[in-house]
Amino acid sequence: MKYSLSIVRWIVGVLFIISGLVKLNDPIGLSYKMQEFFEVWNFHFLNDYALLFSVVLNVFEVFAGAAILIGWRTKNVSWLLLLLIVFFTILTGYAYLSGKIKSCGCFGDCLPITAQQSFYKDLFLLMLIVYLVIYPYQLKETIYPLMSKLVLTAIVLAGFFIQWHVLNHLPLVDCLPFKKGKHILQQMKTPAGAIEDSFAIEFIYIKNGQQIHFNQDQFPADFDSTYEYVGRNDVLIKKGNGLKAAITDFSLFTHNRVDTTLAILQSTHKIVLLLVQDANDINLWESSFESVQKYAAKLGVPLFIVSAEADKLQPHFVNTPILSCDATVLKTAARVKPTYFLLQGDLILDKKSYLDVDQLFQ
User: What fold is seen in the domain 261-359?
Assistant: First the structure.
C-alpha cells in the first residue's frame, strides 16, 4: 500500500506539474482552446473570461501537483483534483467522441496530443486520483509544514508572474509554427502522404411539413418549388490521416484585395511586419510604432501593418501600407497584441512584443 501510493502520488503530481508548466508558457493558447469549446456549446458570454480562467487554472495545476508531492493537506487537494479531473474527462470525452474539437490543449502547443489521447490520459488519471481520495491518510507530508506553505506560496506567485511576463513579452519557449528561425513557405506546404477529410453536402428541405435530407446525387424525383429550403450540412464521408500543413490560410491582401503573400515572402531583403489582431488599444503602441517606422526608414527596411481590421487602422496610419490577414492566423502568429516580425524573405529572423521592439534590429 505504502509503495503503491507513493508511485501514484508521483505520477499524479508530476503530470499535473508538467501540464501546468507547459501552459504557463502560453496561457493565451489555452484561452483560445476554451473559447473553441464555448463557441461549440454557445456559451459566448464566457469568451471574455477565457484568459482569466486559463491563468488561474494553469497556476492551480502546478500548485495541486506540488501539493500532492509534498503531502500538504492531501485529503482536500485530492478531492479538488478529483473534481478537476472529472471535469477534464468530460471535456476531452466530448472532444473525442463528438469530433468537433481536434485537441483539448491539455499540454499546450509544446506537447500536442490528440483528443483521443487526452481522453485516455484523463481516464488513467481519474483512476489514480480516486485511489488517492480513498487513502489520503496514508500520504504524509514530506517536508515541514512551514516549508510546505512557503514552497506552495512561491509556486503560486511564480506562476502568476510567469504568465504576466509571457502575456506582455511573448512565450518563453515558442512552440508555434511562426517561431523564430522558421521558413513560412515551408510551413505552408502539405506534408507528403497527407490525406484530408472527405465531406459531402447534405441539403435539408421541408415538404408537406416533413423535413427531408438528401445529397446532390440523390435529389427527390418530384423536387420542385413546393420544397422549402432549410439549410445544408457538411457530412464526413471519409476520415483523413490528420496530416496537414503547420500554417494554413496565411494570406496577405492589399486594400484592393490583391494577394501580396508571395511578393512579401519571396523578397530578398528584410521586411518588418507588425501583426495587429484588431484595432483596439492603438494608443498603447502607436508612439513606439512611430519610432520603429523612423528607424526602419533609416535602414531602408519596408514596414507593413498586418491586421484583420485593416480598414479600421487605415485612418490612423495613412502613410503606412496596411495588409489584411485572417484573424485566426494572427492569433497563432502573434500571442501579444501587437507583435513585430523581422523577415528575410519568408525566414523569420526575429519576433518581438511591441514592448520589446527596441531589440528587434539588434
Answer: Glutaredoxin (3.40.30)
DSSP state of 273: E
Residue recorded with cell 482569466: 52
Residue in 97, 99, 62, 64 with CA at minimum distance from that of residue 83: 64
Q: In what order do the strands lie in the sheet with 322-324?
A: 322-324, 303-307, 270-276, 339-344, 347-353
* Cell numbers at 149, concatenated: 506553505
pTM assigned to the model:
0.82
- Structure confidence by residue, pLDDT tens digits, 207-253: 888 898 888 778 888 888 889 898 888 777 777 666 778 898 899 99
Round to whole Å and give the CA distance between 75 and 114. Answer: 32
* pLDDT tens column, 65-110: 999 998 888 888 999 999 999 999 998 888 888 777 777 767 777 8
- In the structure grid, which three cell numbers stand for residue 252, read together? 496577405
DSSP state at residue 307? E
CA 122, CA 259: separation in Å to the nearest integer?
44
CB 147 within 8 A of CB 69: no
Beginning with the edge strand found earlier in the chain, give each strand of the sheet holding 210-215 in spatial order: 210-215, 198-207, 228-238
